[in-house]
Amino acid sequence: MEIVWRTDSRVPGYLFGRLHPAGTVTDGIKFPQPGRLRPRRRPRYSGRGLQQPGRHRGCRSHPQVDDPVQGPAYNFAGLLALGASGAGAAEVGEVLTAVNAINAAGLTAQWYVKTFRELGGRLLAPPPGAPADSRTKRFRALRATQYYGQALFFVLGPDEPGSEEQLYRAGPSAWGTFCDLCEPAPVKANVPYRSTPLPVWFFRPDTSGTRRPTVILTNGSDGQNVDMWTYGVPAARERGWNALVYDGPGQGQLLFVDRVVFTPTWEQVVGPARRLADGPSGRRPEQDPPDGPEHGGLPGAVAGLPP
């Protein structure tokens, strides 16, 4: 049995769903068969809309009635993991191997959490053979952070939902190992926020102290720091910029350990973060652009407001 990546008009692709025997042709790309990838046939248009599913010549029929989309949340998470490979925060072969194992066992939260949690643990253990150098250890720890985050996203589904905080703590532990091995290592600090300070990681391209912009990266409502690494830290450093990553209300340490929930008043969060960045960056706060993947642009809109 092999993974079949299928696509339709709703999401970019499917990693999870019904397994197909090797050799079948679907309306997608079958993995893994290097050198024999078949491109998806484009649907033909007529005056009355798209051609009906299953009518493509030479393709197997998949009508929605007997082949519904299964596990869209799992597909979304799995595709995010694949995308993280471009920033070194995942490895395509590791993700696809995990997907194969989950599909073979039966797509459930139980197997998803177990598979990715074990994968993260293996990467933190010493690799077989000769001792790993610092670069190898660094990126193994980064990928472990990603896979722990994958498991954490579905941890309330299995039969041990009480392990949520324990699983969460494994991710920051791997993240800390990665940060300590970065060259240069990020500056760690805290941003004042009510009674609970916000942990901050300040990434720089070098230690020269040159004045440069700092991108303030605000995570999603339940995202992990590794997501912000993928989202923008390497891109910022490649441009000679700094990047500031932090746990805000309803995120990371504040959510899983300190029990600080999401807030609508992001001016009390982003504003102090920008002022902290102003010190090491040597620039005015308005020159440090905020960015992030969620919240509809709210953190950027309120960044200049007084807290």
Commentary on this structure:
By secondary structure, this protein is an alpha/beta fold. The protein has three domains: about 1-65, no CATH class; about 70-185; about 185-300, Alpha/Beta hydrolase fold, catalytic domain (Rossmann fold, 3-Layer(aba) Sandwich), CATH 3.40.50. Helix content is about 40%, strand content about 10%. It contains nine helices and nine strands. The chain has a five-stranded mixed sheet, with helices on both faces. Strands 1-2 form a two-stranded antiparallel sheet. Strands 3-4 form a two-stranded antiparallel ribbon. Strand 3 (about 45) and strand 4 form a beta hairpin. The radius of gyration is 22 Å and the shape is globular. The termini are far apart. Residues about 1-10 and about 20-70 have low confidence and may be disordered.
Beginning-to-end CA distance, first to last residue: 56 Å
Indicate how many domains the architecture comprises: 3
CATH architecture of the largest domain: 3-Layer(aba) Sandwich
Q: Can you tell me the overall shape?
A: globular
The main β sheet shows up as: 5 strands, mixed
Mean pLDDT: 78
